[in-house]
Automatic annotation (TrEMBL):
<dbReference type="InterPro" id="IPR001509">
    <property type="entry name" value="Epimerase_deHydtase"/>
</dbReference>
<dbReference type="Pfam" id="PF01370">
    <property type="entry name" value="Epimerase"/>
</dbReference>
<feature type="domain" description="NAD-dependent epimerase/dehydratase">
    <location>
        <begin position="5"/>
        <end position="223"/>
    </location>
</feature>
<dbReference type="InterPro" id="IPR036291">
    <property type="entry name" value="NAD(P)-bd_dom_sf"/>
</dbReference>
<protein>
    <submittedName>
        <fullName>NAD(P)-dependent oxidoreductase</fullName>
    </submittedName>
</protein>
Length: 294
């Protein structure tokens, strides 16, 4: 597939693009800074609607000119570009850029006839991650039916983006899938970060004791590219196991007293349920910090 990928210069985007390329997809990275990846790139301000639709409808590489058949179209758009969290710039600017870029990208995609859009939403939509103080989920494990009541501008932007995507899908009938991505972990970060999580599980409370390996996130994007006909859907994206060394039951006893437990959980089962992604698009994560650390 020919894929218009925004935000490929970022942490998650680089791994996703590498995985998609390994699966045979032709990926064009669209960002404000070069990625260093071996793929065509366009430097674009996604807050500018004209630049977005222009980038999505132009040549991107010399071999495309040689064919003499006009500008090739895209089979899918993957939108990862965003200010990645609060407390980088101002809250208002985080909200403005994240909502405006998502609107511009999806609008351009549907007007140009791209049949599929996959966009990055977030674990933060459930209101736990960036809350002022401690907010507990209404039930565990958290699945996509859990209320999304954000407490911060980043999470607000992601909830707005989901509403934007649902509206475009309802109007056009295209496949538009949102990924509520948990904390993205690169392979080298297991040895850098996870020993501290073993010592103090409370460090993972805001991430609902979950994580997503960057390589498995790329796999999830590929699963969505290969799954047609779902209309509008959102999916939690996390690895199968906890990001701490204690058991699920110990997590419940220490951190989720009084919280409804929806079903009996396995000893290492994630509290950020990925069952919907597994059943609907064939998501099957392969990596775990337990493969690296004893």
């Amino acid at each position: 597939m020919r894929v218009f990928f925004t935000g490929g210069s970022g942490k998650a985007g680089k791994w996703a693009i590498r995985h998609l390329q390994a699966q045979g997809h032709h990926v064009v990275n669209v960002d404000q800074t070069p990625s260093g990846l071996d793929c065509p790139e366009l430097l674009v301000d996604l807050c500018d609607a004209g630049q977005v639709i222009g980038a999505m409808s132009q040549f991107v590489d010399f071999p495309e000119l040689d064919a003499g058949t006009g500008v090739p179209t895209y089979d899918a758009v993957v939108h990862f570009a965003a200010i990645p969290r609060v407390m980088i710039g101002t809250d208002g600017e985080c909200f403005r850029q994240n909502t405006l870029t998502t609107y511009n990208v999806i609008e351009a995609a549907v007007k140009l006839g791209v049949p599929k859009v996959i966009f990055a939403s977030s674990e933060t939509t459930y209101g736990v991650c960036f809350a002022d103080g401690e907010v507990k989920p209404e039930f565990v494990p958290i699945d996509e039916t859990h209320p999304t009541v954000p407490h911060d501008s980043y999470a607000m932007s992601k909830v707005c983006n989901e509403a934007t995507a649902r509206s475009f899908q309802a109007r056009t009938g295209r496949d538009i899938y949102g990924l509520r991505i948990n904390n993205v972990i690169e392979p080298q970060e297991y040895t850098e970060m996870f020993p501290a999580f073993m010592q103090d599980p409370a460090l993972r409370r805001r991430n609902i004791f979950a994580y997503i390996d960057a390589r498995d996130l790329g796999h999830m994007v590929d699963c969505c590219l290969k799954t047609d006909g779902l209309g509008y859907e959102v999916f939690n994206v996390a690895n199968d196991d906890l990001s701490v060394g204690i058991t699920s039951q110990e997590v419940i006893e220490r951190f989720y007293q009084g919280v409804e437990v929806r079903h009996e959980m396995g000893p290492r089962e994630t509290f950020f349920s990925n069952r919907k992604a597994r059943s609907m698009v064939g998501f099957n994560p392969q990596h775990s910090w337990r493969d690296v650390l004893a």
